[in-house]
Amino acid sequence: xxxxxxxxxxxxxxxxxxxxxxxxxxxxxxxxxxxxxxxxxxxxxxxxxxxxxxxxxxxxxxxxxxxxxxxxxxxxxxxxxxxxxxxxxxxxxxxxxxxxxxxxxxxxxxxx
Length: 112
Description:
Radius of gyration: 17 Å
Shape: elongated
Distance between the termini: 10 Å
Helix content: 10-25%
CATH architecture: 2-Layer Sandwich
Number of domains: 1
CATH class: Alpha Beta
Order of helices and strands: EHEEEEHE
Structural class: alpha+beta
Largest sheet: 4 strands, antiparallel
Strand order of the largest sheet: 2-5-1-6
Low-confidence stretches: none
């Protein structure tokens, strides 16, 4: 089992979730987060004064997937989130030792 985590631009959320649904993903978790990468922060002007904003709003997606599905799902996310501009985001996957569905007690791939 793998946990696929993606941090993407907010405007890419709809395209990514639509592509994941088409790829057969039954569920995912979406969180609003803030951070920065190579682009650093940005500056904004408010009432004539310039302010430095160190973090940028992003969307974090988390998807539990079977080992065999992980490479394809990562590609789906990358392809649907890519704009070609700095700050498009990152996708990574980690091993998951155990998954249990709370309602039924199912474990492993059946819990997905």
